[in-house]
Every structure is written in C-alpha cells, then in structure tokens.
Write a structure and sequence with these properties.
8-stranded parallel beta barrel; alpha/beta; TIM Barrel
Length: 317
C-alpha cells in the first residue's frame, strides 16, 4: 500500500483543490474550496463552459453587486465536485463578512438554498467561515439550523476551544501558515516536522477535544511538506493539495499512527471556558494567530475581488 492508502486507513483524506481532474485522480472522500482555489480554477481553459453556464444562470442586471454571481459560481464548482466525491464539500462565505454575524448567517443561508435548489442535501455541504469571534457566533446559530460549518483560518488553541463550545461541525487549523510565521520569526529555513509549531498546535487541539469529548471534527490544512502530514496521522481529517497527494501516493514507507483518542483520554488537562472578552484577550496575546488571521482574511478577500474582476472582463468566460 502507498503511504496515502495507509493514511486513509486512519484519517479521512480531503482534496484541497477546485480542480476536478485532480480530485478524480486521487479519490478523496471530501473536498474543500476557497476563493484562492476558485480563482485559480476559473482561469483554467477546461472550466470555461462552467463559467459561461454560471453567467447565463445568474441574473445580476438588477444589482450593482457581483456577489450573486460569485456565490453561484462557488455552488456550481461544488456541485461538480460532489458528483465526484462521496462525502462533503466546503464552500466559503465572502471574507469581507468575517466581522459581521448577521451578514455571515444570511450568506450561509443563501448558499444552502442554492445547493438545495440543485437537489443537494445540506448534509453534504460545509459552510466555511473565518474563525473570528463573529464568525464563531454565526456558526453557532447556523449549526442549530442544521447548516454545518467549517471554521477556517484557525491558528490558535483559543479559536479551537471557542469553536468546540459553539458546537461547530469542523475546524481547519492552518498548519503550514503557522510554520511560515515561526520560520520567519526565528530566522530559520527549516523546522523538523516533529517540532513544527503548526503540527504541535493541531496535536494540542486534538488531545483537548478527545479528552473532553467534544464532537467537533479537526481537519488539518495548509501543509508545506509531507512530514507535517505524517506527524498528524490519525487526525480526524487532513485536507491535502494535489502535489502532496501525488507525493504520498508514490511513497510506500511506513506510517505509524501519531494521534489517538484513547491516548488523549489519559492526559491531564484543564478545561478552558471562554466569553467574548476572554477570547479576544487570549487571541490578542498570540501574535502569530492575530497576524495570520488578519492576513488570511485580507488574502481571501483580495482573491475574491480578483475573481470578480476576472468575471467582469469581456471575454473572460
């Protein structure tokens, strides 16, 4: 068996891409998208027909906003992905709503309504929301309506605890971006996978969730190398880029389990309870998480604007 096959025996493998061909090749259970991935896919010639169809199906003549077109495009891409994967797909709300509880809830409801109009059950969709205090509050409301959420741009333990207490379905800790920050801060080129701060962050969250019986799923994301993935073997889910999926599929070395719920139960831990003031203070005290969360929101917002500009260009589709 390949390393990828071995990983799939203990962890749900998710494709971190909007490229249908890559998803078909590696056959993950789930898939996840974001504005950056959609921007890249939208510019590929093989998706021209999907873009043209989305534009035909979306009436934006009565509105100055291109948001309906962007939401419909995300849903159409996700619909094609769901025809390939047996599980779920994650679709992101507009990053500019990251500090808007009401706006996030309304956007999530619109996306789910579009999926249901296409005959896709909401159980197969995860709404991706930035793990700000407002995003977590919005997710708590949506979960009570049966709209499952994936809290993304998660860089800290305090974000993870707040998500679990809100009862969200899934979180996406960004392993590689945590590593990026620490390499820059330390002035080093490499950090061994077993000492990787992103890996250690996910391990801490995993052990906390399993120790206290939280049902929120953990999906490690944003990997920089296969060593990070190996160190998180046994995590609930891992979302992996096509390049790293290929690397793991071509390798046949051993893969010991590194995360285990039974082992987590034996650890001594103190339970953390959060209100808004404590959440904001503890997040503020974590310079890395504060900087990477803000940067991530700006990046996704910028890529969404680029996607909107691309769709406005004559002949883009």
């Amino acid at each position: 068996m390949s390393t990828l096959d071995k990983l799939g025996k203990m962890t749900v493998v998710v494709a971190d891409t909007g490229d249908f061909l890559a998803i078909k090749k590696h056959k993950p259970r789930d898939a996840t998208t974001n504005p950056s991935l959609l921007l890249a896919a939208a510019q590929m010639p093989e998706y021209r027909e999907l873009l043209e169809r989305t534009i035909r199906e979306t009436d934006i003549s009565s509105s100055q906003s291109i948001s309906p077109l962007l939401e419909k495009l995300a849903v159409n891409f996700a619909k094609e992905i769901l025809a390939i994967v047996p599980g779920r797909v994650s679709v992101e709300v507009d990053a500019t709503l990251s500090f808007d509880i009401k706006g996030t809830i309304e956007a999530a409801r619109r996306l789910i309504a579009l999926f249901e109009k296409e005959g896709i059950e909401r159980s197969r969709v995860l709404i991706k929301i930035a793990a700000t205090w407002e995003g977590i509050c919005a997710a708590g409301v949506l979960e009570k309506e049966g709209i499952r959420c994936n809290l993304t741009l998660l860089f800290s333990f305090v974000q993870a605890v707040a998500c679990a207490e809100a009862g969200v379905q899934l979180i996406s800790p960004f392993v590689g971006r945590i590593l990026d920050w620490h390499k820059k801060a330390r002035g080093v080129e490499q950090i061994p996978p077993e000492e990787d701060p992103g890996v250690l962050s996910v391990k801490k969250i995993y052990n906390y969730y399993k120790h206290f019986g939280f049902k929120t799923e953990i999906m490690g994301a944003s990997f920089r190398n296969s060593g990070e993935i190996r160190e998180l073997a046994g995590c609930d889910l891992l979302t992996i880029s096509p390049q790293l999926l290929k690397e793991l599929s071509e390798d046949d070395s051993g893969l010991p389990r590194k995360l285990d719920p039974a082992a987590a139960k034996t650890l001594e831990m103190e339970k953390l309870h959060l209100d808004e003031k404590r959440f904001r203070w503890l997040l503020n005290e974590d310079a890395m998480a504060t900087e990477k969360l803000a940067e991530g929101i700006r990046r996704f917002s910028a890529d969404l604007r680029k996607l909107a500009d691309f769709l406005r260009e004559p002949g883009s589709a």
